[in-house]
Amino acid sequence: MKEKITVCGPPSFEIPNISFGQYIVDRLRQSPLHIVQVDAKTGEILTNYEVLDKSIKLSKYLEQKGIKVGDTVAISSDNILNYFIAVFGTIYRGAAIAPMNPDYLEDEIKRCCRISRPRLIFVSLKTRDKIFHATKSLPWKIELIQLETLDSILSKFDNNNYKNNFYQNFQPESVKKPKEQEIVILYSSGTTGLPKGVMLSHHNALTISYTFRSRQFREFQDKSIDLIFLPFYHGYGFAMMMSIITMGTTAVVMKSFEPELFCRAIEKFKVNTLPLVPPIMIFLAKNPIVSKYDFRSLKEIICGAAPLSREVREAVKSRFPWAKIRTGYGMTELSVAVCLSDRNSQKSETIGNLTSGVCCKVIDPETSKSLKAYETGELCFKGDHVMLGYRDDPEATGQTIDHHGWLHTGDLGYFDHDGDLFIVGRLKELIKSKGYQIAPAEIENILLSHPDVNDAAVIGKYDATGDQVPVGFVVKKPQSDVTAEQLRKFVDDKVSIQKHLKGGVKFIDAIPKSPAGKILRLQLQLNSKL
């Protein structure tokens, strides 16, 4: 019998040929009194009706501002209830939404803006001033709207007239080609290089929503309560919230992870589903605070964004034996998620079977030959989840998606005879820290800009928690007396916290490179015994 060299999930979902905006409106209208969001700290709530009411009003306001199909609107905010009001109001206009990390500093903000070229940016109190200072020097006008003042703006609409004319009859802007029109631009470093704008289409958004509603991902829906502290700008958090709001479940929202609030919220709101990342799994496994709270409402813990060790998984399982622990896999370029392990799987390290409409093959990185079951190589995916491409970067798009439509992930893995996938390592050079992708080239460019640096390279090393942190290797200029601490601070002052050189700076005589000038990172890692 011929060995299988491609594994596929079930047939594609029967997705309607509509805009994602129309899908949102249709879903929210079904249960107007359903509580869809709760602020974990204050208890403030939003119902489906309130989300729909506010987002439609905002859409009309954006129409007055001239926002139209093909425009881009950015958003830079921590997790607050009005965040997805801004997202939905933008989507109804047929414009693309571009979430930015609220911790980005000036150069990072400018880089994102040059990629997405937003006409307007929604900001929060936390981000307002730095967004203003970063964008005022850009060569096009960008208007800022603060999310905390959104209700004041929307209150200017005549509510009686509004309800009669818009609530029941409102139609978002139509999108002629949902498979070709971008809806969101998420920032990712892809397989290498500086951050790029991942363009996902209306069809991609519908696909991931149908995926998250499927029985593979959700055994129970209507009564599920999810605790969300994942940042909304990140693909994982963004996709989870979009799906929760449109599938009829409830999200208890945290601005960021706070141990006591996290535990208290699970107990108080009787949370059923926890979408997490590995560092929080370590917290659940080891932190004594957890024992003070009642977690018996938990039914599923889903871990994604980075590999989860068997030891941590088993420790969490022993602490919460009544909850199913599942691991998923995906990437921003694949509409966030393409695999999720089975609830009753006995294979502790698998990332599970493929979801509907996705195929996977494993190739030899050197020859591109397709490999058979249990043979390790680069994972490549094809199907409804594959992105449109990188915004205004056809070269990087071509390097990631080949001419047959296969997206090359840069991750090393294999599949078994059941079609379950396993990740064993990373072909690409990115550093993954707490679910964030860090491009070494970005930090290297900053180090190289220092007057006392001749050459530099950055790689990841594992810290005591099993997470990766960036470490810099520097060739100093002759007679320079610059210190490692000075260089570390030089970088840290220019980038957001996840990119800080927490692994420190080490001085070496030369950066190992290939004849073509490529940094030999593996050799650097072996030589330094990281």
UniProtKB/TrEMBL annotation:
<dbReference type="Pfam" id="PF13193">
    <property type="entry name" value="AMP-binding_C"/>
</dbReference>
<feature type="domain" description="AMP-binding enzyme C-terminal">
    <location>
        <begin position="442"/>
        <end position="518"/>
    </location>
</feature>
<keyword id="KW-0436">Ligase</keyword>
<dbReference type="GO" id="GO:0016405">
    <property type="term" value="F:CoA-ligase activity"/>
</dbReference>
<comment type="similarity">
    <text>Belongs to the ATP-dependent AMP-binding enzyme family.</text>
</comment>
<keyword id="KW-1133">Transmembrane helix</keyword>
<protein>
    <recommendedName>
        <fullName>Luciferin 4-monooxygenase</fullName>
    </recommendedName>
</protein>
<feature type="domain" description="AMP-dependent synthetase/ligase">
    <location>
        <begin position="29"/>
        <end position="390"/>
    </location>
</feature>
<keyword id="KW-0576">Peroxisome</keyword>
<keyword id="KW-0472">Membrane</keyword>
<dbReference type="InterPro" id="IPR020845">
    <property type="entry name" value="AMP-binding_CS"/>
</dbReference>
<dbReference type="GO" id="GO:0005777">
    <property type="term" value="C:peroxisome"/>
</dbReference>
<feature type="transmembrane region" description="Helical">
    <location>
        <begin position="233"/>
        <end position="254"/>
    </location>
</feature>
<dbReference type="InterPro" id="IPR025110">
    <property type="entry name" value="AMP-bd_C"/>
</dbReference>
<dbReference type="InterPro" id="IPR045851">
    <property type="entry name" value="AMP-bd_C_sf"/>
</dbReference>
<keyword id="KW-0812">Transmembrane</keyword>
<dbReference type="Pfam" id="PF00501">
    <property type="entry name" value="AMP-binding"/>
</dbReference>
<dbReference type="InterPro" id="IPR000873">
    <property type="entry name" value="AMP-dep_synth/lig_dom"/>
</dbReference>
